[in-house]
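Deliverable D5.2: sample structural annotation.
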Amino acid sequence: MPGLGVTKLRPLSRAQAMTVYNRDLDAAEMEQVIISYAAVEPTFTRKEVARWQEVSTAGGVLLKLVNTIMEISGMEIGAGKAAYNRFRGAAG
């Protein structure tokens, strides 16, 4: 069951990070995508993460996983989207 034991993570690739930033995802969907990309052992599908979200506390393990993934990937939540939107606004 998720939440028990150790989860081995890896940073997101640039391509994976860009797919997160270039899609209009709500927070729950973004969490599902990020965890499904970065969890190495065990692995999780988006559907498995969604089921985990249903039983997890708001500030629990999933939030810690996402924060760790963002940190090891050199990303800040929202920073990429904000920069992308500023660039698009300047180019237009």
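Annotation notes: The CA atoms of residues 21 and 81 lie 5 Å apart. Residues 8-79 form one domain.
The annotation will be released with the project's public dataset once the embargo ends.
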